Amino acid sequence: MKERAYNFSAGPSMLPEEVIKDVADNLLNYHECGESVMEMSHRSAEFKEILADAEATLRDIMNIPDNYKVLFVQGGGTLQFAMVPLNLAVNTGKIDFIVTGNWAKKAYKEAVKMGYDTKVVASSEEDTFTYIPEVKKEDFRPDADYVHICYNNTIYGTHYPYIPDTGDIPLVADMSSCILSEEIDVTKFGIIWAGVQKNVAPSGVAVVIIREDLLGKAAADIPTYLDYKIHADNDSAYNTPNTFSIYVAGEVFKYLKRNGGLAAMNKKNVAKATKLYDYIDGSGYYKAPVRKEDRSLMNVVFVIGDKDVEKKFVAEAKAAGLHNLGGHRSIGGMRASIYNAMPEEGIDKLIEFMEKFKEENAK
Amino acid sequence: MKERAYNFSAGPSMLPEEVIKDVADNLLNYHECGESVMEMSHRSAEFKEILADAEATLRDIMNIPDNYKVLFVQGGGTLQFAMVPLNLAVNTGKIDFIVTGNWAKKAYKEAVKMGYDTKVVASSEEDTFTYIPEVKKEDFRPDADYVHICYNNTIYGTHYPYIPDTGDIPLVADMSSCILSEEIDVTKFGIIWAGVQKNVAPSGVAVVIIREDLLGKAAADIPTYLDYKIHADNDSAYNTPNTFSIYVAGEVFKYLKRNGGLAAMNKKNVAKATKLYDYIDGSGYYKAPVRKEDRSLMNVVFVIGDKDVEKKFVAEAKAAGLHNLGGHRSIGGMRASIYNAMPEEGIDKLIEFMEKFKEENAK
C-alpha cells in the first residue's frame, strides 16, 4: 500500500508522521554533522546533547520534580520486573501487588520467582480483569518495601480511575501503555517506569522516573546493569545506551511540547476514546466488557461474541488498512490501541469500517 | 558539513552508506506495508520475517552450526558480563579470565562483584595491555565452569592471534569489536557474544551465539530476562526486543552477504589496516605501541608522545572531517577504529591528514 495504515497495534505502534519524516530526512547526515545518529558515539558532544535534550524535554512536559532522576534503561518491562525488587525490596523484602491484568501478574510472578515475600492485596482476575479494584491504605502491609501497580492494562483495556494511597510506602507504577497520554502527579509515585514502544519511540528502552532517596540501596552483589544508581550516576550512559530510540523519544517529546503538552494530548485522547466507546456502546453489535469508569483511553477492548466472526473482522480490517485489531493472543476478541499518534481520522475510519462490517455480518 | 564524515569512533560507529539510505527510504512505509519498522508489532508477520531473516543471514555468513542458538538481547556487554556467569557458572562457580584490556577486566570484576570464584590466568596489564599473553590448556583450572576472553580489545587495539585451547571447558568470547570482520570457527566457542554497536547496527542489542547444551542450567530464582533459555525458547521475542536495531542488523548481514561474505570483508580489512600500520611504522613521528603480531584490524592505536600535540591532532582531524580519533578517555593518545563500514578512502584521507600534520608539527 502506498498510503500509511492506521496501526492499532498494542505496541510497538504508531509514531507521529512528522517525527518519522524528520528522522528519515536526517538519517544519513544528522543536521549536517557528518554522521547518522545511528553511528554516533554515545560519548560524543552531539549525542550527549541529544540525550540531555530528551531528558530536559521529558522533565518539562511531565513536570518531573528535581528530586526524581530520569533513566533510559534497556531490557523493557521484563527487566524492570526484576530491577525494581532488587533496588527497592531491600528492607523487609515484602512487596504488595494489585493484580489488574497479565502485566501486573507478571511483575508479581517475577518477585515470587526471585524469592521475595509477596502479597496480592487485590485482584480482578475472577472477573477477567474487567475492572480496577478499589484499594485502601489499610489494605497494604505497613512494612512492605513497595507497592506495585500497572496503571493502564494494555491487554484488558483498563486504567486506574484513582491513584492508590499507599501512605509512606513507595508506589511503583508500570505506565508503559499510558505514559504521556495524560498529566500525572509524579510526586505520588516512588517509581514510574514505562517501556517506550507503545506511546513514545521504537522499542528497546524503558524510561524510569525514580525518586532519588530510593537509589543506592541495592545489594552489592547484584549485576551492575540492574542497579538504578549506576544508571543515575552516569546519566544513562554507564554503557552504550540505545542511542537511536532515545533520539526518537526526544523528538516525540519535542513534538508533544510544541503541540500543547500533555493536557492538550489528553484532551485529544479523551475525544478519540469517547467517540469509539460511544459507538461501541450504541452499536447493538459490539460490546466493550470493561466497567465504564475504568476504561482505558489507550486500549479499547471490544468483542462480537463469535470467534470466527471476530477473526474475519480482524482480517478484513487489515485489508482495509486498519492494522493489528486482534485482541491479545491470551484473550482474543478485538483491541484498538489508540495511542497519542493515532489521528482522530483513524478512529473515524475504524468506526466506518465497524458499521459496514456490522451491516454485512449482523444476523 | 554537507558531506558525510569519516567516523573513526570506537562505537557506535559507521554503517554502510547504502544500508542507511535504504533504511531512510523505507522509514515511513517499509516496503509499502503501511508501517514504519519502528512502529511494527514484534508479533506481526512482517516483523517476524525481519527477525527470522536476520538470524538466517547471520547463520549463513558466520557459518553457525545448528547446535548453536542465536539470540538478540538488550543491555549490551554490561548485561552479558552478568548473564554469562548466571547461566554458565552453575557447577563449581569457578571462572577463569584472561585479562587483556578494560573490557576483559570489567567481565572479571563483575564476576568478582557477584561472588564467583574467579582466577586471572594471565594478564598483560603490567605492559599496558600492548600484547596478548600466550596461555596453554594446563593454565586453566580443570574444573572451571568457563573461560572468558575478549577477542579484540577496542581500547588497546589488540586482537588474539590464536584461539586459546581450553579443552572441554567452554570458551566464552566477547567479540564486540571484531564480529563480522573475519571468518571465525564458531565450534571453538561455547558462547560468542557481541554488542552490535561497533560493527553491525545501532546500539541496544547484543548478539549471543550459544551452544545449545549450555542452555537451561541457570538457577530458578534469577531474573527472567537474564536466562538465555528464555530468549532461546522464544526466538528472542519473549518480550519486545529492540526491533529497529535487529532490522538494521539484518540489512547489514545481507549487505555483507552480497559483498562476498566475511572472507571478502576480512581481505578488505587486512588491506586497510596494513596500509595504516605501515604508514605509522614508517612515519618516524607516530608510534603504534601494540606488538605487531597482536595488532587489531579494527582498532588502530597510535601516539605522538606529547599530550598537547595529540589533542591538537584530534581537534584538527575533526575539523577536516575525520571524526573521533581520540584514544579512550582512560589512556589518551589516538585511536582509529576502522570497522567494516570504513571505506579504504577513509584510510587514505587519514594518512594524508597525518602526513600533513606531521610536516606542520614535527620538530
- Give unreliable regions of chain A as ranges: none
User: So what's the oligomer here?
Assistant: homodimer
Give the N-terminus to C-terminus distance of chain A in angstroms.
Answer: 32 Å
- For CATH, the homologous superfamily of the largest domain in chain A is named as Type I PLP-dependent aspartate aminotransferase-like (Major domain)
Question: What fold name stands as the CATH topology of the largest domain in chain A?
Answer: Aspartate Aminotransferase, domain 2
Can you give the helix content of chain A as a percent range?
Answer: 25-40%
| Protein structure class of chain A | alpha/beta
In total, the number of strands of chain A is 13
Helix and strand pattern of chain A: EHHEHEHEEEEEEEHHHEHEEH
Arithmetic mean of pLDDT of chain A: 97
Strand order of the largest sheet of chain A: 2-10-9-8-5-3-4
The first-level CATH class name of the largest domain in chain A: Alpha Beta
Number of helices of chain A: 9
- Considering residues with a beta carbon less than 8 A from a beta carbon on another chain, report the largest interface and each chain's count: A-B, 76 and 76 residues
Strand content of chain A: 15-25%
Named at the architecture level, the CATH assignment of the largest domain in chain A is 3-Layer(aba) Sandwich
What is the total number of structural domains of chain A? 2
Based on CA inertia axes, which overall geometry of chain A fits? globular
| Largest sheet entry of chain A | 7 strands, mixed
Radius of gyration of chain A: 21 Å
